[in-house]
């Protein structure tokens, strides 16, 4: 405004100030434009907090972060007015103000070829699939030449950087230029080659060009056609990239050290000259060398990197001359000799030594069907998006692969990502576990960064490993605000990006339910795949894949190992368990080989190559617990079939249902019919909604991991009663989940359900229908023959007298159950033990105790005073101390005679029979028999409906 200090001004209040719809501004200088371009977002968010009124030719002063000042000149205001007010609806249009290019000196025009830029095209860098690709050439499809006026021979190649990466790339380049005494080329010139093998709209780039411009697969590049006039070819100056602590940075003192160092340097330059001459002569056609090209030369078995600078006949560049700013190149004919010089070494930056993480993924075994399913879905999803848009059909969502820890989810998805790259699909992997503790604003920026990168390289697949760690499902009785916020934010951002670009989300999780359900309901993840534990055939394929791609020991041992037997012995093993098991087997084989050499006395020529044998796998299996069974309480009963008497039909049915499918698995796998699902106070019931169902699911999943497995539910009527009788609804939900688990579409493979109850009429009828607990076995009251078998089985661990007749006792124990008969024998055994103890020992002890008598006379009851009580207690304390000080005389050790095993005679059995009564009365037996007959023999098929009784005086709840 031109105001001076001390000048008087007149201030008036303006009423009815119009709101500005559009304002056109221009940076005052080029510096203001560059600063504004870098901080456009900050100015947009904070402009109204600094400027609200505008007028023509106003110079607006905007402070950025309170440190940097940007000046903008107001050009035009709409609606037209002398002044206006800025609001949230005002559109601010900034006109660019770029710097004018510096004039080019005439000397520089003579040092390089004259370049005239022609039309350009954008291409996508494709992975090179051909073995022989010239490292200084660019390959494109013939259809891409239609955009050029004429077929070019030389082209200019640049890498395009998106806006969201430009600031970061400028910082990296600045750091790299500060670390390195020299700069790589930002643009290169190359020979164009046409090939029908190149995919359309893609380009194959030579290895030297890719390394120089730091190109990656599926980057976007711009190829420009240029007119070239040949210029004289000068010399090549090589500058060696060395580590920060390389040999050139170390100063050695002394004449001998200097001479030795000079000799080593001369030898190194000679080897470099021979290597680069060989590289130049390998080109059979005319080639182009650009200023700032980086090449790798193999010297003494080590790959070294060099920077090429070009010199001209007029002014040969040396280490003392700086690198020219302009781009120029040499067109070199085959077998043309070039003079080679060496400049100063360049210190590598940290970014220049980053390793390439694009390693080969090993072949996986046993998951071919799952791989084909996901790959076909991925290709169909990304290739048919244009067709679906034209037909107004909603696009499909991503893929969610769930499985337990160690099942191989990440390896499978990496294998799929590798195959996707062969189909020209860009892949990006993110480990969500590393950022699960980040704040929501940081995660929002990360989401945007991932989606921007995927959009720039589309079609692309964004692989989120362990997504359930970042966006977990909401948990009851816990604050789930963060998870809900992240899920809504992720759904909104992904939906917006996927609608504009060809992007697909792929994720892994422990369980499908562990990921927030909003990602599935909004179709961000549509294809849900679950990785089941491998069966025997799949474990065999996994074992063969691990050994065939492992070390030489495993490769040489594979023909000598019975993989079918090893797979049969590793039931319940996951892919990670099999890999750890193989490593453990190698250690066992090494230990066996060392022991064999130490024990051998003869010096015979032995094969020094270690080969695994079948015994090594057996030894490694001992004590190895797979990950799915760690922390799981597995019970193996010590009772054999021979310990059970009677119940022949029940034992036969259990053998057929439980033991045969495991023992003869190959035969039962060919069975066309679905096998029985099972035979008819646990930790399942929980008052919280959903907790009981989760317990049932976890129980069956643990059983599936430990297959073959028997799930035994004792007192089954307590957890699966009739639905509608529970006021809380907990058991109703448990019954529904049990029906889902037992009657699934795939059935229970290797898991058998065994339930025991004394009241089958209280169990929900739906669980007793065919396909579930359809086989009812009755452990009824034993007959005379069965009672004899029970007594014989129980008496095998006891010593009976020769004259004992168990058959007579079996006839006299009518109405006794198996438990009653066991109690009958145990009581007789206990009676025999008591009578077999030497009573003389007790008599002697009793006599000794009777000799120690305490005589006292009680005249009457007198109440003691407090003083008398204290005196007596003090006296007793002194007596105890004196007794404790006296040495205790140890009696002579007597040899304890060996007790003979108690023998059960008819006398003891008779006493036990007189004191033992049946646990079930006749009335109770008749009532239970009528109930059991309905479920075993007398069932008519009309099962109760499960509804509660509605009559007056009827019970409606379980007692």
Task: Describe, in short, the structure shown.
This protein is α/β, with parallel strands linked by helices and about 950 residues long. About 35% of the residues lie in helices and about 15% in strands. The C terminus is likely disordered.
Question: What attributes does this structure have?
Answer:
27 strands, 5-stranded mixed beta sheet, alpha/beta, Barwin-like endoglucanases, 16% strand, Vcp-like ATPase, Chain A, domain 2, 37% helix, 29 helices, disordered C terminus, Rossmann fold
What does this molecule look like?
The protein is of the alpha/beta class. The chain has 6 domains: about 20-95, Vcp-like ATPase, Chain A, domain 2; about 110-250 and about 260-355, Barwin-like endoglucanases; about 370-530, Rossmann fold (3-Layer(aba) Sandwich), CATH 3.40.50; about 535-595 and about 610-620, Helicase, Ruva Protein, domain 3, CATH 1.10.8.60; about 640-770, 3-Layer(aba) Sandwich (Rossmann fold); about 785-835 and about 900-920, Helicase, Ruva Protein, domain 3, CATH 1.10.8.60. The chain contains 29 helices and 27 strands. The chain has a 6-stranded mixed beta barrel. Strands 13, 15, 16, 18 and 19 form a 5-stranded mixed sheet that branches. Strands 21-22-23-20-24 form a 5-stranded parallel sheet, sandwiched between helices. InterPro entries: AAA+_ATPase, AAA_ATPase_domain, AAA_lid_3, ATPase_AAA_core, ATPase_AAA_CS, CDC48_domain_2-like_sf, P-loop_NTPase, PEX1-N_C-lobe. It catalyses: ATP + H2O = ADP + phosphate + H(+). GO terms for molecular function: ATP binding; ATP hydrolysis activity.
